Amino acid sequence: MTSPFANLPAPPYYVVSFSSIRTAGDNGYGEMADLMEALAGEQPGYLGGETVRGPDGFGITNSYWRDEDSIRAWKQHADHVIAQKTGRSDWYERYEVRIARVERAYGFERR
Amino acid sequence: MTSPFANLPAPPYYVVSFSSIRTAGDNGYGEMADLMEALAGEQPGYLGGETVRGPDGFGITNSYWRDEDSIRAWKQHADHVIAQKTGRSDWYERYEVRIARVERAYGFERR
């Protein structure tokens, strides 16, 4: 199994935190989500991502980026623009996006 | 049902993003997590939080704070310090914490 943790450099870098509630049914979401994850991974400045969705349909995806320019470029990527539109028409009841500059980071791992 | 979304003011504010994998078994985690959530909600500068854990044990909790001082004060709160220690001894296989300054935010809600 691959780790669910992003392997990140030392700060500073940026995080785009995407909190969402899905609509009922798949409606092509799963396929597009996989596609967008792969495509995001190819973008300049992408550092990694972490994602989880609970049994109640609420999910958080934190994606990590080198700078604001790379976040902006990904938001305007043609395929991603289509996905964003379909997100609003079909896939999400609600979402909230917060763009933040990571200033400190630390962690713990059991031996 | 209460909303899983935090009700936040306009940026700037701060986010503490806590990604984690739990150990097997509860070991008192559920009770302490409820307690810490309630206690965090009483702290000066606490703005709200969003949390989700998936079926594989990986979870993300984003808690939102007015400024770095309030984050620091909560990290040093006596009861929270005990919870953090027990987290490392009993509850978590691994966790990663990123502290970030939220600069922009936007959202979507279906009518």
TrEMBL record, chains A, B:
Please give the InterPro entries that the UniProt record associates with this protein: Dimeric_a/b-barrel (IPR011008), Jasmonate_Hydroxylase-like (IPR052936)
Give the Gene Ontology MF terms in alphabetical order: monooxygenase activity
Q: Keywords for this entry?
A: Monooxygenase, Oxidoreductase
Gene3D superfamilies per record: 3.30.70.100
| Origin superkingdom | Bacteria
What's the protein here called?
Heme-degrading monooxygenase HmoA
Q: Which organism is it from?
A: Rhizobium paknamense
